[in-house]
Amino acid sequence: MPTLDQCVTPDLRPPLLRHSVMELGRAVMEMGSTTLLAPLFKTLPQGDGHTIMTLPGFMGADGSTSQLRRFLARRGYRAVPWGLGRNAADVRSRNLDDFLAHRIATEHAIAARVEQEYRASGGKVTLVGWSLGGLYAVALAHRYPRWIRQVITLGTPFGDPRGTALYSVMGRGYDNDAPEDALQRGVSHTYRGGKLCVPVLALFSETDGIVGAGIAQCQGDPDYVTHVAVLASHVGFPFNPVVFAVIANHLVAPHARWAICRSELLGPLVKVVSPTEPH
User: Fold this and answer.
1) How far apart are CA 37 and CA 247, in angstroms?
2) Is 1.10.10.10 the CATH classification of the domain at 4-273?
3) Residue ranges of the domains in the chain?
């Protein structure tokens, strides 16, 4: 398990202002570009029917991940929502420890849903978590590998929250400036509860307007973590056809995947990044 010092990433640069300002416009373009890559989707490997649960980002509900679930269903998977309402809508945190307590309670609720799906289907469940949802997914992978097949995260802020564009705004709701130990507790919580033995695909974007690239890489066991940089906005992750293609390609066994990074169409938009490679 990573130590506290290892988990709190030293690169706290927030996203570039131009990326933050362009977030909504880029997301709209991503939502509308799916039809352009429809021919590509037909070449993607077909799924095996196992259950995939989507976990929305901060203040997102199941509607925000519905397009992704429809795509996964068309590829042959049983795609289900998390069914827990709007993510963190009822949190009333005065400090980071309050938010962590809410997060732990949410993870317990998700775990109950995952166990239910596991017992109903008789097979392990894949978790696809967007942003904050990705933190839940990786935390659960450490604790419940018996129920979880793999984890895919989309634009998840794994490191110190000061590396996000929203921290300065959200921090105004706290009584005081967050102490270092509270920041460390929040970040290291993701990796506690057991040894990681579930594959994790962490997708991030170097042009993300919400989450800085310096905190966007998962610090779990590198033997199980793969990082892929894609061209996407933060808001657009669950609508982006390039993201969809990378997900579908990674859900199947390695021998059934095609070399997505060597694709003439997608190669310039996708880059595999090792856990220690700067970005």
Assistant:
1) 14
2) no
3) 4-273
| Rounded alpha-carbon distances, angstroms, from residue 60 to 55, 67, 135, 151, 230 | 9, 13, 14, 19, 21
Amino acid at 51: T
- Concatenating the DSSP letter of every residue in 103-160 gives HHHHHHHHHHHHHHHHHHHSS-EEEEEETHHHHHHHHHHHH-TTTEEEEEEES---S-
pTM: 0.89
pLDDT of residue 3: 47
**Residue 37 region, left (φ>0) first, then alpha (ψ -120 to 50), else beta?**
alpha
Q: What distance in Å separates the CA atoms of residue 168 and residue 63, rounded to the nearest whole number?
A: 27
Phi–psi pair at 20, nearest 5 degrees: -65, -45
Q: What is the pLDDT of residues 188-221, one digit of tens each?
A: 999 998 999 999 999 999 999 999 988 999 999 9
pLDDT more than 90, % of the chain? 58
> How does pLDDT run across 34-88, given as a tens digit for each residue?
777 777 777 888 999 999 999 999 999 999 999 999 999 999 999 999 999 999 8
Measuring CA to CA, how many Å separate 128 from each of 51, 54, 140?
A: 11, 5, 12
